[in-house]
Amino acid sequence: MSDQGTPEDIDAAERSEAEEIRSRIADLPNALGLAARLNSGVLEAGAALDMRTTHLVRVAAMAATGMPKMGWEVNLELMEDEVGVDDIEAVLAVIAPIIGTSRYLQAVTTLVTD
Questions:
Q1: What burial class does residue 36 get, using C-beta atoms within 10 Å of its C-beta: 0-12 exposed, 13-18 middle, 19+ buried?
Q2: How far apart are CA 68 and CA 106, in angstroms?
Q3: What is the pTM of this model?
Q4: Could you tell me the mean pLDDT of each successive run of 10 residues in the chain, 114 residues long?
Q5: What is the CA angle 54-68-21, rounded to 5?
Q6: Distance CA 82, CA 80 (A)
Q7: Minimal CA–CA distance to 63: which of 112, 14, 25, 96?
Q8: Do the Cβ atoms of 73 and 114 come closer than 8 Å?
């Protein structure tokens, strides 16, 4: 007899676990708002880079670190007026040999999936 249970039991357990995670996230402060505030503080303090260059550097860093989709969404919203799709594609193409194929494909997949 297997300790794993039936497929229905496993699906129910996975759904229960997912609900628990959603519940914990719902109890957190507004994570997107917090991330935006943290990002805006960094951007306002800005180094010696202009805003467009700062955003492009951040695109490279997000790709290199494997930023999850939510992080991309927050940052892309902040970049909206400064950086376009062509800019992001160019940055990813330039850094691909450095960050590797898997990180490059992960970034592209994150950007193109809903």
A1: middle
A2: 9
A3: 0.62
A4: 58 72 62 60 63 90 93 85 92 95 93 85
A5: 140
A6: 6
A7: 96
A8: no
Q: Count CB neighbours of 23 within 10 A.
A: 9
C-alpha 104/C-alpha 101 separation (Å) is 5
Domain ranges for the chain: 31-112
**Second CATH level (architecture) for the domain 31-112:** Up-down Bundle (1.20)
The pair of three-digit structure tokens given for residue 3, joined into one six-digit string? 């300790």
Burial 74-105 (b: 16+ CB within 10 A, else e): bbbebbeeebeeeebeebbeebbeebeeebbe
Do you know the residue count of the chain? 114
Q: Which DSSP symbol is given to 84?
A: -
